Amino acid sequence: DEMDVDLIWQDGEFVDWEDAQVHVLTHGLHYGTGVFEGVRCYDTENGPAIFRWEEHLERFYQSGKPYDIEIPFDRKELTEATEELIRRQDLESCYIRPVAFYGYDMLGLNPEECPVEVAIAVWPWGAYLGEEALEEGVDVAVSSWRKYASSQIPTNSKTTGAYVNSVLGSLEAKGNGYTEAIFLNKEGNVAEGPGENIFLVRDGEIYTPGLAESILEGITRDSVITVAEDLGYTVHDGATISRSELYTADELFFTGTAAEVTPIRSVDDNEIGAGTKGPVTDEIQERFFDVINRRTDDYEDWFRYV
Ligand code: PMP
User: Fold this and answer.
1) CA triplet 248, 250, 256: central angle to 5 degrees?
2) Which fold has domain 131-292?
3) Phi–psi pair at 179, nearest 5 degrees
4) ipTM score of complex
5) Does pTM top 0.90 for this prediction?
6) For the segment 177-191, what is each residue's pLDDT rounded down to a tens digit?
7) Which fold has domain 7-123?
8) 63-85: string of b/e by CB count within 10 Å (b at 16+)?
9) Residue 196: CB within 6 Å of ligand 1?
10) From CA 96, how far away is CA 301, in angstroms rounded?
11) Which of 196, 217, 223, 261 to mutate to test the pocket of ligand 1 (most atoms within 8 A of CB)?
């Protein structure tokens, strides 16, 4: 297939890519009652290394809680399945996508009779917003769509159906010629990107919204906060950031498993800082890439070697 991989793990079995199918009356297909994860595995001197696997697994199980999705495989089983997918397909680095969802029983909204189906796919995936974006930064626009509030849909759960919000924001941004969107929350404060958390730099200090702003508290976000603090920066975790502060920020950047650390060079056509990757972003990004490519022994417990 086009992704250069031919195996998917589905409900306990390794199946051929084209045989990994579901019924059209799958509950999760109709109502979005599923949860997923996105994880990266990096190419290192000691072989492929999965970044913060335990934290991603923990979030996967936690994501299911509001929906009573009990994933019928334990951590060891999901770990072995993932590692075997990577080994059997000789991947040096890849993106890992576990998903769990209510399958077919009947289509009442209450899913309690539906089986929980689980699958894991892995595939090679480069820079999410492009290699150039990592160097030059991206042009983003504040979305006319708001981020849903955590009083409406849990935002600390990676719920499949909830990603229609992200899709709307992405389509709008791309349609208007921007690379990515920024969502404000229901209160009108800065929340996050469709698949990224956001950081702001002002006067040498770093600010990022927290869970109270209806965001997903990303694992890259957590890693970047740790790395930035270890570099000596003050990080205001849980900051309230207004839309207008975006325009006057010294620097802005996104973080995420897919986006890694991506500078933002403009918001709504307003140049941020010098309109390119800023010095604080550069230092943090460089350190982050040193960490994930294991050019340092620091943060060794963030890695699981396959
Ligand atoms: N916010 C949203 C809405 C996301 O989908 C993601 C990607 N999982 C993130 C933030 C970043 O989270 P992480 O660093 O854990 O990938």
Assistant:
1) 105
2) D-amino Acid Aminotransferase; Chain A, domain 2 (3.20.10)
3) -85, -35
4) 0.99
5) yes
6) 999 999 999 999 999
7) D-amino Acid Aminotransferase; Chain A, domain 1 (3.30.470)
8) bbeebebebebeeeebbebbbbb
9) yes
10) 19
11) 196
